[in-house]
Specification:
Distance between the termini: 98 Å
Radius of gyration: 26 Å
Length: 611
Amino acid sequence: MVFFKRKPVKTVLVCCGTGCLANNSLEVYEGLKKRIEGAGVRARIRPVTKATGCNGLCERGPIVKIQPDDIFYCGVKAADVDEIFERSVLNDEIITRLLYRDTSTGERVKSHRETEFYKRQYKIALRNIGEIDPASIDDYMERDGYRALKKVLTSMSPQEVMAEIEKSGLRGRGGAGFPTGVKWKQCERVEALPKYVVCNGDEGDPGAFMDRSIMEGDPHSVIEGMLICAYAIGAEKGFIYIRDEYALAIKNMTTALEEARKRGFLGQNILQKGLNFDIEIVRGGGAFVCGESTALMASIEGRVGEPRVKYIRSVERGLWDKPTVLNNVETWANVPVIINRGAQWFRSIGTEGSPGTKVFSLVGKVKNTGLIEVPMGITLREIIFSIGGGIPRGREFKAVQTGGPSGGCIPKELLDLPVDFDSLTESGSMMGSGGMIVMDDTTCMVEVARYYLQFLAEESCGKCVPCREGIKQMLGILEDICAGRGREGDIDLLLDIGATLQEASLCGLGKTAPNPVLSTIRYFREEYEEHIRNKYCPAGVCKELTEFYIDIDACRGCGLCEQKCPVGAISGERRRTYTIDGTKCIKCGQCREACRFGAIKNRGRRHEDNH
């Protein structure tokens, strides 16, 4: 008798995270699903189509993966659906033109695991994202979902759970880096009831989408982490505070909560082990300051989102003056894995002071923008030039900003700095929630500081005078410097006001607000001095201090600058040279971006001192 081996069922995974959805990945998903369901052939091995969360490589979306063939297609369009179905789903062929082209080698690669972007990562918090359908609790459970909850309910005491989290060295991934296990123990010791468990999903940093992607792509990991904490500290109620703009995160988290209740993972007498716990979603109030723990709790209570003094600890008097544990999305997503695999396993990753991994949104002037998770201790150089693929268009790396609006800018001299809580703080920056914005030599560091101070001035709640007035004064000085009105002494004044803010502000927003200014002065002081003394913006960004011209020796007469100029300020003849009419030029810099030969230069413009 001859036995034929049955072919494995194929799974077609289509990224439907926010980034890919913006590039019409839903059309790709629905097209493939329709073709597969309507094929009427090979029913016994009919492929499964799943809409997943973010795969990470946002620069190349929409992304389609075909398993178990380990095929990774990028930049897929609805027009590619039929070809993918016919050739790759039914006939095991590879469509070369859709494969990822590696930025380091220029070669097409079949599997995402072969790319520099993916193979240097280590995924814990992002372990399931891009691999499961976030709307399916069965998908989550097939990958050990809720196994950690069952483990703690059947074989661990609350004290053993807290001890394991403490031994793991897990630190809060929301910015402060406070030891998670210590926080849980402090709350558990307080006798007052009820106790609350809160998830901070209010991520408001410009360019950041780490927590958003976890809530969209693996919501059950957050729920399970909160459940384990509830068991450990004796809480019966939880809240997930989600930024109001995160519509998909709210939708997927709502679905996950409903499914968890149906399966007995939320509600009364969970898994017949006596645990009572449920979770409610609260939509954010739309203010950046509500990401601060006490302001967030005030918002949940229905009050204005303002922080309070820190000597009142949330683990003792948090929500409604009751003991409360608050961690961010990424922290909660780590908890089930630590319980399943053990504290020592987690400590074996990362550094002594910062065990485990960290999720970052890598954006800005870097080839491979997207969502990454890397071991603590990896260097900035590895992240930017290996995972990120380096700086586009052959430009020079200048700085990287970490930690969101309240973080700092780290220069190229510190590219080999290890990425961990302590090293980033020592450099004048911070870990923050995980935003990482790469800047090239066309970035003005004074303008960067001005931009973040403007953001923070608008987002300050105004409750305390140092933050409310101090940020405003610093912003005014920066605006003058960028407009050519800078004066001697402005730099020292910025340093003095910044030190006062750090010392006297009520909450973390005010205390860290000077970081963008202080770090750029620390590493790029000469750029400030050029603005003030020579009325010159070396990067050609500050319009009042910039005058573009074309270097006739470098110009090749390609005409790209003329084509890109939005106001017709450039004229010339093809294969000869071009010139810029300074009276028409609006200094937008599009000509410089278009020029491949570095012919667009900036000589600056001198200004008389107006003071």
